[in-house]
Amino acid sequence: MGDALLEVRDMHLALPAPGGPRSVLAGADLAVPRGAFTCVVGPSGCGKSTLLGVVAGLRRPDRGAVLLDGRDVTGTTGHAAWMAQDDLLLEWRTVLDNVALGLQVQGVRRREARARVRDLLDEFGLAGHVDARPSELSGGLRQRAALARTVAQGRELLLLDEPFGALDALTRLHLQRWLAATWAAHRWTVVMVTHDVREAVTLADEVVRLSGQPAQIAARYRVDEPHPRHPAGLGPATRRVEQDVLTGLGVLGAPDDAPVPVP
Amino acid sequence: MTRGPGRALPVVAGAAALLVLWQVVVAVGGIAPRLLPSPARVAQQAWAHREVLAAHAGATLTVTLVGFSVSVAVAGVLAVTLDRLPRLRAGVVPLLVASQTVPVLVVAPLLVLWFGFGLAPKVLVVTLVTFFPVALGLVEGFAAAGPGASALLATMGASRWQEFAYVRLPAAMPRFFTALRIGVTYAVVGAVVAEYAGAVHGLGTYMTMQRAAFRTDLVLAAVGVCAALTLTLYALTCLAERVVVPWARPRQVRHG
């Protein structure tokens, strides 16, 4: 794809394990156009997070390349904003200073970094919690703060690793709806890993399904319904994609690849 | 943590009750003052000798503070080095533990023998006694940051120095202050032990002299000054902790 901001080519990675290296990624390919939202789904423990970590530069792949805007960034960091399932907010920093962290790392002075992220806090519904410490926030607000910190870095590419995975169902629904609307207004380029298929089809332009370990791309699904979508009010076409993905994962009907391991 | 009169009251009441009991036992039993002086006599004699006591307390305080500062500085350098070199850490931490098994009472006279009656041997004793908790507190504190936060900083393109300044150092502060509080109480005792082994000034020297003169009241007065010194340093450390580590005491939790 010529206009892809992110390209992952033929990614191979084996990780040390008892009894010799275990292949985790075996030839994963991705192409994410600028301004597109891609969701990666797959069976539990298939290597979704590992794939995201490799794109972020936390691990160097054994083979394959990560290209950002055509530039080879394999094994390097600092080109994408990454968010883990654990919000990783620093307890000694206020919400404002947590969100400003990325800019400070980039060499922006603390005062200026704070000034630059203030508007973002308003937009993320954190205006009343600017000076709060993370321990004073509810789970949903913590995830919003972590998302704000990710966006505030000003990178073109956002890598979200199950950002709502640890939330209760109701809070998750609220945040999915909110993210769908916020993303539609900004059109950041996003790769998001999730185990929630409804979440994936609500947010994504394309859903990529990985096979069981070692992970390869098992299938890609386009979701054409206009943004922003509502997780509880998806159109029939999107609902059909959801059924297809669930069928592919072996949750509905006959599995079309390796059986899903029971966790 | 609740503070204020509600928390201090039982402590004060308990101490007062003990003092009263002590006073009564001495008065009723007719115990000789050189065996066990009454608390009133100890207080009265302490006041009468306040200038000498203050001078010796000053000497002990100097040894304590210099020794403890050296200890914290050396522990800081060592802990940062070990944090950078995980393989070295596995080898050195057992040595730190071993350093705690050295009996200070035995080593202190040797240090006086080697370094004379000056500040050096006493500072060394205080350092020896307090180094272990402080160094271990820092080493474990740095490790308490966890791999997730380090990974986050890495994806931001942070240098090792930035990762240390933004994550590892602040993460270490709660444990560091716990270690400081333990260390500072050992420090005063360490200084007194060092003075006991041989010195010209200090509360340890003063106690040795007064014991030889059978002035049990003044020995106990010096013990009281020691305790007051320790409690003051402990309280100052707690105060510093509240200023430096405010996040360890969460304010009222809000929801939203």
TrEMBL record, chain A:
Q: Quote any Pfam family the record assigns.
A: ABC_tran
Entry superkingdom: Bacteria
Which PROSITE patterns did the record assign? ABC_TRANSPORTER_2 (PS50893)
Nucleotidyltransferase is among the record's keywords:
no
Q: Does the keyword Glycoprotein apply?
A: no
Residue ranges constituting the ABC transporter domain according to the UniProt record:
6-237
* Coiled coil residues, start to end: none
Q: Enumerate the transmembrane spans.
A: none
Tell me which UniProt keywords the record has, alphabetically. ATP-binding, Nucleotide-binding, Transport
Which PANTHER family does this one have?
A: ABC TRANSPORTER ATP-BINDING PROTEIN, TAURINE IMPORT ATP-BINDING PROTEIN-RELATED
Tell me the protein's name.
ABC transporter
Q: Which organism is it from?
A: Cellulomonas phragmiteti
User: Which lineage?
Assistant: Bacteria, Bacillati, Actinomycetota, Actinomycetes, Micrococcales
Automatic annotation (TrEMBL), chain B:
Q: Which residues cross the membrane?
A: 53-80, 92-117, 123-155, 176-198, 218-240
Q: Key word Iron present in the record?
A: no
| PROSITE patterns documented for this protein | ABC_TM1
Q: Name one Pfam family in it.
A: BPD_transp_1
Q: Which UniProt keywords apply?
A: Cell membrane, Membrane, Transmembrane, Transmembrane helix, Transport
User: Where does the protein end up?
Assistant: Cell membrane
Tell me the superkingdom of the source. Answer: Bacteria
The ABC transmembrane type-1 domain sits at 57-237
Q: How does the protein associate with the membrane?
A: Multi-pass membrane protein
**UniProt record similarity statement:** Belongs to the binding-protein-dependent transport system permease family.
The protein in question is named ABC transporter permease
